[in-house]
From TrEMBL, chains A, B, C, D, E:
NCBIfam families: ribC_arch. It comes from the Archaea. The keyword Metal-binding does not apply. It is an enzyme of class 2 (transferase). This is Riboflavin synthase. It comes from Ignicoccus pacificus DSM 13166. It catalyses: 2 6,7-dimethyl-8-(1-D-ribityl)lumazine + H(+) = 5-amino-6-(D-ribitylamino)uracil + riboflavin. Belongs to the DMRL synthase family. Pathway: Cofactor biosynthesis; riboflavin biosynthesis; riboflavin from 2-hydroxy-3-oxobutyl phosphate and 5-amino-6-(D-ribitylamino)uracil: step 2/2. GO terms for biological process: riboflavin biosynthetic process.
Length: 152, 152, 152, 152, 152
């Protein structure tokens, strides 16, 4: 029974975690979900770490990043931290981040929901099928939240 | 009796720590505060580390960042350090940073004070209610210092 | 019998791993390949780490990076993680990354394929000839995916 | 008898260490100074580390950064390293850096000298008065090398 | 008999290592050189690490960085890795990097050769004279590859 840490923020403008949890439960019925909500993206890594220490096998996180340069540096700091956690624990952290300069309004909401669902599916495949579960799609231009672009 | 490290700087132009301490004491009456004041943002992480080693359970830090590109790189270095500390100790560091290019004069002072108070409240909730204490607000577009923007 | 970890993504638009594996098998017939496919570049480091823990002696990874500033920060986070892995394990991670702002369409595909092959060859030389295997080419302006530029 | 590591570079155009040592000796008469001069800013962190391992309790470093983007990335790498050292050892590293795009000629020299002296004073206060030694100045807009800007 | 790791790349357009080795052997006749050639700058850190583990006391590395923003991020990742290595081992890594946007053609070649020689000399002084060997030059505006600019 795999345990997945689901970490999201109050800063985000879409409840992406909810969407992802639905997908995870449908694809991996025996899954155990542990949720942790933090204020913003710079609080995500420690939440993942705590849930890893409680035994979670993988994590999926939902960040939301403003449009300024400062926001982008915060995103970079968070990304580095999630990299360090992954290589410390050897556990996947699927980082679902929405950037406010990608789109706006309803379109941005749609991107967020689709990205959350599609990355939850990616995580489900990694958890159930292992290292080569996604290999049939290698190099095929998959996108999450936007249409796939296909192979060149 | 939770102990919270409060770290601030002489570089900042608003005494944000004072505001945050009031909120923390009101929301978590049994709280123990340890304060550490340093010159600037690149001195914050080591102060947090020392207070964690003295037994603090969480930290809230108050940074103030100038408007130049160099200032932003200093912010990035500090942010990475606070991420590393959080994943080393498994303790929250709520990083309250004010950027001089956000606003100016009285407005910037107001942003700083409100951000300090609102993040102190976030920390109080995390300390008293745990991982799902903020979940009712997940994806609701909370902001600190500026008006909430709400969900999409 | 050296074991090489081959990590690629579903985000990429060219199956670079396939090209590299052909070269590796031809140059190092006794080689053992372990493949791991992940969604995107921020998932690469943990896959390498897992395969290193399963005994792989080196890795070759295939990243694909979009043209935006955000994409570049993700590239930076991944690059830092691969650096940290390399200095933790003392094992090479040959990082083959294609950036969408290098070229487009067929030309980009050609760059990707050539870069994968040429870096696979670099790895084969490091594995079979050791630290001075590439020394005859030191300072000679080798490029992968684009024509060599030669020494000044 | 506190020991302070003083690390500076041959790249800098002002002998800032000399100025800082005078202040430190006047403010903390029993102080022991260990000096280490390196070529440039990317050599500073290892010098601090060596002097920490020889028993120094804190460090003050003097960097000088050119005006190009590449220089700024070198500054960032150094800053991250000094952060990591501080959180590894729990010892302060007061990082006095002068950036060539701050001013030029005599003015830049004056900034460098004043910054060195003022940060030496900060360090002396931290060493002799501890975590709350600077608290009376918290949020008061102190600057080093330029005039203080005061609280908002 | 000090052992120095000399790490260079096939990407570089000048054989800088060769120049540096000549200087090192002349200045430190008993020196032992271990050379390691890698494809590009992101492969340098692991080579240094391996040679440190084989007993080298210090390293000098020769990077060559293209003119694009992506190249600069690769430079940053490498620089951070070399910082981490230095503070892990307490050994100097003199990082000699040439950036293609510094100059071009013959001039760039001259910069590369002079920088390699001058930094080899710096390393020789650190190895033979220790922490204060370069102190007489502190704050004197030394440059490597370009003319010294002198103190302000």
């Amino acid at each position: 029974m795999p345990c997945v840490a689901v970490v999201d923020t109050t800063f985000a403008r879409v409840n992406m975690a909810e969407e992802a949890i639905k997908v995870l439960k449908r694809k991996v019925p025996a899954i155990k979900i542990k949720r942790y909500t933090v204020p913003g993206i710079k609080d995500i890594a420690v939440a993942v770490k705590r849930l890893f220490d409680e035994g979670c096998d993988a994590a999926i996180t939902f960040g939301w990043v403003g449009p300024t340069q400062t926001d982008k540096y915060s995103y970079l700091a968070m990304s580095i931290a999630l990299q360090m956690l992954q290589i410390q624990y050897g556990k996947h952290v699927i980082d679902v981040t929405v950037h406010e300069d990608e789109a706006s309004g309803e379109k941005l909401k749609e991107v967020a929901i689709m990205r959350a669902r599609e990355h939850a599916l990616n995580l489900a495949i990694l958890l159930t099928k292992g290292p080569e579960g996604l290999t049939p799609l290698a190099g095929t231009g998959q996108r999450q939240g936007w249409p796939d672009v296909g192979p060149l």
